[in-house]
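Problem 12. The chain below contains 145 residues. Write out its predicted structure in token notation.
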Amino acid sequence: MKVSAKGRYALRMLLDLAEHRYDGFISLKEIAERQNISKLYLEQIVSLLHTSDILRANRGKNGGYMLAKEPSSCKVSQILRITEGSLTPVDCLEDEVNQCEQAGFCKTLSMWSGLNKVITGYLNNVSLQDMLEQYEEQSADNYVI
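Solution.
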């Protein structure tokens, strides 16, 4: 599995919103400047995320975006599924029932299934809040006088 720029930028954008969640609605221009991401690219990402329950939008003078729920409820797996589609490492695991003609005698299927469980399990257990806290811990450890 390789996460595209769209997935990475969506995470950065949502982390920015999580970090500034008490500031009200945040404009894409502000996020783009802080994250050094093109505003046009963020607009594409917003169109994907807006249909989910992760993002709230407000138009007008004080318009912008904010998280629709707490950062602890925003799982990385959900965000990446929205931006990337499937998270499976091989195509034959994308459907609930394996449609591959080789599935009945494939010697590698159990390995791919195991990898898929590890990826899914990990990403299901990491939230935006976890990522913010981990960053804060790392920053505190790097304090230099």
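Discussion. DSSP finds six helices and two strands in the chain. Students who got a different answer should revisit the alignment rule from Section 12.3.
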